[in-house]
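no rush on this but wanted to send it before i forget. theres a chain ive been looking at and ive put its sequence and its fold in token form underneath. please have a look and point out which stretches look like helix strand or loop to you. thanks a lot i owe you, the record is right below:
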Amino acid sequence: MNIINSQNLGEYLEKAYNLFYSDKSEEALCVLDDILRVDSTSMEVLCLKGFTLNKIDKYKEATHVFNKALKIKQKDTEVSYVGASCYGNGCALNGLGKYNEAVFMFDRAIKDALKNDIDKEVLYSIYYAKGSSLDSLGRRNEALESFNTALEITQKIGAKETIYYKRGIVLEELGSFQEALESYNQVLTGTRGDTELVSDTEEQIALIENKIKNKQKCNV
């Protein structure tokens, strides 16, 4: 039986990452807990544990872990896990229906991401998640602003169809039907192989077209 110690922590952390990406969350948690018994102040390990808990919908436990991670003061020479911890915490809070707290965490994540020049794909994910939380709060204009920022980022990294769909939903809720249609049509133009997204988009387009027809009848 191998024993985790300060000399082989890196090896076991790599194992935990592999288990995480292989969707073997329970096994990953066991390894991470073993690592934390040796080094309880590793922000990276706590962050990974939080994301692993999010994966299996254990949001309450995840917020506890992320909050613990955010209390750790990192050295300036270390890779920052503040933004990642805030983002993961925001996702957990969103899962718990605590949307205001989630937005606060996403804002902290964005601030850290911009400060540390984080990968654009990560920044896109944060803005997308923030927009979803704002939409759940009924703060449509702010949600739209967040989705638009995410769209600007996707122009560089691709994979923008999902954000066009969410943007269409918000525009529809705001009563901007023509703009919503334009956004939905962007989904159909760019989507490749995602039959569920295509089906959902076509359904939304049909609903909007009916709303427009009914509105026109009322105005006659």
In short: The chain has eleven helices and no strands. The chain has a mean pLDDT of 87.
